[in-house]
């Protein structure tokens, strides 16, 4: 018999947030991705999709549309493969998240790039800890 595997939940990711009405926001996720819980998101600030969020990419080699700066962390799984979807994110702190559930865009592929993304979140008051 196969072991039962439980998908991560909001409680696995979010260890503390001061006031839900302050730290959380409803946002629109850009179509084309199945977004996992814990995804670090960037806000698109220019172009046709301005105002929507997507996975926050590494700045090097990407066109600058604003999403290279970490702006939020998704606190639910959202499948936006076939269209834009609404989602709830942690947008500002104080909040503490578990590093075990954080998901980076594939372009954020080394320690230096990941450290930079986490620093961007820290500037928002969102702290990611190993032992949260």
Provide a concise account of the structure shown.
The protein is α+β, with helices and mostly antiparallel strands and 132 residues long. It contains 3 helices and 10 strands.
Describe the protein.
This is Head decoration protein. By secondary structure, this protein is α+β, with helices and mostly antiparallel strands. The protein has one domain: Virus Head Decoration Protein, Chain: A (Beta Barrel). 16% of the residues lie in helices and 32% in strands. It is built from three helices and ten strands; from the N terminus they run αβαββββββββαβ. The termini are far apart. 30% of the residues are buried.
Shape descriptor reads globular
Enter the CATH topology name: Virus Head Decoration Protein, Chain: A
Main-sheet strand order equals 2-8-6-4-5
Q: What's the main sheet like?
A: 5 strands, antiparallel
- Give the rounded overall mean pLDDT: 94
Ranges with pLDDT <50 over ≥5 residues? none
Radius of gyration (Å) = 14 Å
Write down the CATH class.
Mainly Beta
Based on secondary structure, the structural category is alpha+beta
Which CATH architecture would you pick?
Answer: Beta Barrel
Could you give the distance between the termini? 33 Å
Topology as a string of helices (H) and strands (E): HEHEEEEEEEEHE
Protein name: Head decoration protein
Pfam families: HDPD (PF02924)
